[in-house]
Predict the structure.
Amino acid sequence: MTLGRAQIEVLVPQRGAMCLLDRVLSWDAEGIVCASAGHRLADNPLRARGRLHAVTGIEYAAQAIALHGALAARAGRAIGPGVLASLREIELRAERLDLVAGELLAIAEALVVERRHMLYAFRIEGDGRVLLRGRAAIALVAGTDP
């Protein structure tokens, strides 16, 4: 199942220019693959001094993770809202994202899904290489039960 930007904006809290993902290429219970071309736009809201530093890829990954949780909840898994609690093992393999000619891929894989938290591995790819990778812990809001 593929989803476009309008469908994504319904499922994540980010709207307008802050919704960084353009398309969902694939997803299942284990993970999600999203695409984005907005990293090349001069008005990307994460740019600083005309550049888009690679660390901003964490926001692309966080949005992919949020979207995965929303799609899983929509598919019947009782996953409620969560917050990004921590990042681990962040590895930057590029300095800038705005220099990537092709689309960015935001790939997130659910490693642990428990009652109060989830753990994801993520990576941002572009031009055939990994630009950023790491892990993210998501704390689920009290009262939710995956």
Observations:
- The beta strands are 23-28, 31-36, 82-92, 104-113, 117-126, 129-140.
